[in-house]
């Protein structure tokens, strides 16, 4: 009965694109059998997780929430999902997302928006965005439909939806998790990571997901640390930096207060708090919104109506017409906007002015962080400049939507591990998130600070 209630709640939230209860049941049975035999249990034995529908899952529809890939059933499994299954987890289904992971509200999905399980108090019952692009993941975990889910984060897509729905999520260092079998958005930024109820669950899931993979040339050839075993909320001896530039104009007072609360919490846990400067922060958003669309326009060239996915072929149409008709029908408005921006900034006449310059600024942003690490071990910031907004509120204004990523994109551009943990509630009772950013490979430090805050 509980399962049926959960499935109907899942339908109301539109968190899943495809449900795969048999997969989860098989994992649960395997765990039961292991118990009966007296075998040692695998780390995720029988745990039912949700899989963002950006991970290729063998024989199970994988759409990236697009019409382009509707009905596409991969013949192989992504490395990250395979690792989770090898650790004993089962899959409840494929979770909704922004189309090709482009968005901050889950409203660009071809399969309809996801609804956050949260509502504002005080009679305002407007349905709220669960954040994006991993909005199905955040909504499902927050509604307790599953104890954990996979997410991917290119410019904040794990951290911002986690913040909007009162859960935790970590984007590890670029290269920790294999990108093999994840539908590519912006390859120099894309990273997988877990979303879960608390920091400990994130540590357990990340340990299963991470690790070297020869099939991804950017995968780091390093052992996976024992993050869960080494969790500690004792921050004595740690210096936590507060970057002055994140105090942006017009920051709502509640976000500023949340940030101060976080500062007090890490001090209580023994950390020393220092002010630091990341002078190129203001260029992070424009840099990201050049580099990510540029890479996306190249990655999405593969959807040509020939190799896989949708094909729109009118009677008598030539090849060019088939490409155009397929891509016009298969890609949603936001994806088309990114392809237009991306091809523009990569075009011969504008390449140096936009793309090359953005690459240079990206290096400066990374250098800001390198300089900060001489003064501190971790950075603490708000995750997003607002609590969850209402569905539809920012849909007509892409710039307003992009601005929501202001605090998450810098760590993505620098490839750094970063996490969002719940920090408290705003005046309407909605969750707000705090972000911890760490040195390259210091997921442990990030998780520990998260544990001290949650
Ligand atoms: N909101 C950002 C974008 O639309 C980030 C998305 C992501 O991290 N996948 O590009």
TrEMBL record:
Record domain Amidase: where: 1-447
Keyword Nucleotide-binding: yes
Family matches, as Pfam families: Amidase
This protein's UniProt keywords: ATP-binding, Ligase, Nucleotide-binding, Protein biosynthesis
InterPro entries named in the record: Amidase, Amidase_CS, Amidase_dom, AS_sf, GatA
Region (Disordered): 122-146
EC code: 6.3.5.7
Domain of life: Bacteria
List of catalytic residues: 52, 133, 157
Catalytic reaction equation(s): L-glutamyl-tRNA(Gln) + L-glutamine + ATP + H2O = L-glutaminyl-tRNA(Gln) + L-glutamate + ADP + phosphate + H(+)
Keyword Nucleotide-binding: yes
Subunit structure: Heterotrimer of A, B and C subunits.
Similarity-based family: Belongs to the amidase family. GatA subfamily.
Role of this protein: Allows the formation of correctly charged Gln-tRNA(Gln) through the transamidation of misacylated Glu-tRNA(Gln) in organisms which lack glutaminyl-tRNA synthetase. The reaction takes place in the presence of glutamine and ATP through an activated gamma-phospho-Glu-tRNA(Gln).
HAMAP family, sorted: GatA
Protein name per the record: Glutamyl-tRNA(Gln) amidotransferase subunit A
Native organism: Sphingomonas canadensis
């Amino acid at each position: 009965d509980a399962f049926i209630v959960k499935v109907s709640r899942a339908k109301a939230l539109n968190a899943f694109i495809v449900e795969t209860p048999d997969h989860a049941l098989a994992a649960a049975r395997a765990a039961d059998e292991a118990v009966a035999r007296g075998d040692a249990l695998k780390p995720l034995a029988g745990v039912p997780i949700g899989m963002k529908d950006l991970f290729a899952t063998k024989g199970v529809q994988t759409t990236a929430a697009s019409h382009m890939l509707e009905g596409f059933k991969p013949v192989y499994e992504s490395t990250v999902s395979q690792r989770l299954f090898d650790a004993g987890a089962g899959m409840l289904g494929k979770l909704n997302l922004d189309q090709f992971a482009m968005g901050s509200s889950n409203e660009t999905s071809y399969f309809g928006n996801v609804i956050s399980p949260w509502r504002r108090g005080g009679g305002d019952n407007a349905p709220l965005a669960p954040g994006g692009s991993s909005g199905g993941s955040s909504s499902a975990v927050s509604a307790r439909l599953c104890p954990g889910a996979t997410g991917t984060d290119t410019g904040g897509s794990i951290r911002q939806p986690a913040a909007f729905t009162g859960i935790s999520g970590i984007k590890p260092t670029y290269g920790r998790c294999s990108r093999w079998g994840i539908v590519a958005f912006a390859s120099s930024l894309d990273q997988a990571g877990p979303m879960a109820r608390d920091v400990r669950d994130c540590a357990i899931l990340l340990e299963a997901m991470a690790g070297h993979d020869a099939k991804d040339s950017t995968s780091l050839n390093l052992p996976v640390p024992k993050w869960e075993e080494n969790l500690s909320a004792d921050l004595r001896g740690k210096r936590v930096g507060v970057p002055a530039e994140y105090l942006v104009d017009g920051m709502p007072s509640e976000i500023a207060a949340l940030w101060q609360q976080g500062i007090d919490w890490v001090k209580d846990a023994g950390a020393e708090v220092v002010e630091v400067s990341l002078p190129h922060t203001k260029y992070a958003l424009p840099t990201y919104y050049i580099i990510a669309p540029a890479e996306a326009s190249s990655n999405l060239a593969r959807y040509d109506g020939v190799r896989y996915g949708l094909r729109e072929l009118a009677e008598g149409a030539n090849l060019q017409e088939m490409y155009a008709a397929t891509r016009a029908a298969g890609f949603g408005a936001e994806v088309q906007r990114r392809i237009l921006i991306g091809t523009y900034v990569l075009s011969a006449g504008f390449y140096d002015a936009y793309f090359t310059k953005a690459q240079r600024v990206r290096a400066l942003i990374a250098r800001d962080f390198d300089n900060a690490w001489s003064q501190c071990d971790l950075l603490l910031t708000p995750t997003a400049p607002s609590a969850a907004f209402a569905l539809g509120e920012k849909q007509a204004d892409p710039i307003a939507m992009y601005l929501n990523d202001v605090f998450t994109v810098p760590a993505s551009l620098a490839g750094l591990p970063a996490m969002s943990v719940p920090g408290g509630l705003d005046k309407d009772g909605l969750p707000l998130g705090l972000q911890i950013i760490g040195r390259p490979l210091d997921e442990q430090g990030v998780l520990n600070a998260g544990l001290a805050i949650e």
